[in-house]
Amino acid sequence: MKKIATLIAEKMSEAFAACGYDSSYGMVTVSNRPDLCQYQCNGAMAAAKAYRKAPIVIAGEVVKALGEQPMLAAAEAVAPGFINITLKPEFLTDYVFEMGRTERFGVEQPAKPKTVVIDYGGANVAKPLHVGHMRPAIIGESVKRILRYTGNKVIGDAHLGDWGTPIGLIITELKVRQPDLVYFDPDYTGEYPKEPPFDVSELEEIYPYASKWSKEHEDYRAESRKAILELQQGRRGYMALWEHIMRVSMEDVKKSYDKLGTQFDIWGKESDAQKHIPGMIRDMKDNGYAYISDGALVVDVKEETDTKEVPPCMILKSDGATLYNTTDLATIVERMKLFDPDQIIYVVDKRQNLYFEQIFRCARKTKLVKPDTELTFIGNGTMNGKDGKPFKTREGGVMRLEVLIENVAEEVMRKMADRDIPEQEKREIAYKVGLAALKYGDLSNQATKDYIFDMERFTSFEGNTGPYILYTMVRIKSILAKLGQLPEMTTKAAARERGADEVNLLLSLARFADCVEKAASELAPHRICQFIYELADEFNGFYHANKIVGETDEAKRSEWITILRITLAVLSDCIGMLGMEAPDRM
Questions:
Q1: Please, what is the Cα angle at 565 between 503 and 10, to 5 degrees?
Q2: Cβ atoms of 582 and 570 closer than 8 Å
């Protein structure tokens, strides 16, 4: 289904061509002055220079050549050379009704869908998820859903950290606390215990303690590095401990992501890439990409156009140990073998920008990817407290993600205290609304920008918030329920007067496909947030201006019911792309 702007542009292009101008000047955009018109064409301004003619003259000629158009109520040339366009309400209504009959409301599916891998987890095992893990999980999940909605094959990968520094620290600390464990006996050849020597709460206490201690004691830090190297080399006892760590912590990690509503297709791990490292390094050496520098194996990734120093990408440390660089590059090798993706997207803290620039350059230089494979970095900003610093607990510590979710749900419960809803159902609703408050509060900002977490504002049922969007949907559900048995969807607009509130709602609906396509091309969930806030606002303006349930004109009433159904369905698809879910009542 063609977008409205495209339909208008086709007619404008014909008119430009009929006047002897290049048809490309017929491009149409949404008006930046909605008080004057709905769409505008600025082609006459651009054509003026090429054809050495006053833009207002060109605009006047084009409008005259345009003539009477079934879709247009008005097309007017205004100084200095704009063409202001207003659609006929009947055409707009018919367009929206057709949207309601098409799959995905007119969002065109690609002739050749892309295969995309999105890496948006990145949590380290043996550590509880905290608020710092929230943004990449929420943003990545939404980008995945938007790309799927637009017809692409998308694989979401958790890519958990299970092979680096945290594991070495845990092994080292366990050895300090329980040196007699059989895992530390290098001569042991028997079976290792099936039950781990720790539970999840002990594991979560060990890592931060060991991390803090290592920063103050070089010998301890060296011991943990040695443990990592021996693990990577396959030491039996350490491998057995690693398997215990994975089994205990993975269950907890999955549970936390489930609470957030983040659904990975594959639970990839750093360790999965180990089998690809020897061959990758051999190829890098054989093809002259990698060389020894100060004992380490590196690949130069600087380019002539660089305005600042870009250091070499280290592949192996001087002691032969691998790094995050190594496993990330080997993971690219694995993804190319498994999925042959057209694009790999990484959603990670924006402070990792230089790191991923090195990785992408190295992958291209060493031909780990095809020349046309896109490697994309979405660097997310931080969620900050009201002091402008990364969000902390009142005690100054890092808040667990599940605690934040519970706190927001409790705040929503407090605001729903006067609702006559059974307690258990109210808690379930508060959880959905709380998640929507968190996700919308995050996604309504551009991914790269930092933002202030404001509990009061995010959980408000008014304004540009998740609860406001859900409340609008609940309102529509309530109206449709009051109307009882609903008629078939209306397919043709009646010849009648339509108020500005109804026209504005129809205009907002008609721009759905354009919004989704922009969100997909820009990898920008905030575009969806902008759209649904405007749509919800337009609906509520329409709702307050009309007595929908009490309307006695059958033609008008049937049209309104159809508009409500389409509005609800569009909003439902949109919140689905944001990873939100609407309750039936609030």
A1: 50
A2: no
* Domain covering 4-87: architecture: 2-Layer Sandwich (3.30)
Q: What pLDDT does 125 receive?
A: 87
For the chain, the domains span 4-87, 165-260
What type of residue sits at position 155?
Answer: I
Q: Please list the ranges in the chain whose pLDDT falls under 70.
A: none
**pTM reported for the whole predicted model:** 0.94
Question: Which amino acid does the sequence have at 362?
Answer: C
d(CA 335, CA 70): 51
| 317 conformational bin, left if phi > 0, alpha if psi -120 to 50, beta if neither | beta
pLDDT tens for 270-307 read 999 999 999 999 999 999 999 999 999 999 999 999 99
Q: Which residues contact 149 (CB under 8 A, 6 or more apart)?
A: 104, 107, 516, 520, 573, 576, 577
pLDDT of residue 537: 98
- The string of pLDDT tens digits covering residues 349-367 is 999 999 999 999 999 999 9
Tokens of 373: 């494979």
Distances (CA, A) of 299 to 289, 320, 361, 375, 403: 6, 15, 10, 18, 43
CA distance from start to end of the chain = 35
Q: Which residues of 221-237 are buried (b: 16+ CB within 10 A; e: fewer)?
A: bebbbebbbbbbeebeb
What is each CA distance from 198 to 170, 171, 189, 245, 249, in whole angstroms?
11, 12, 22, 9, 11
pLDDT at residue 24 in the model: 97
Q: What is the model's pLDDT at position 509?
A: 98
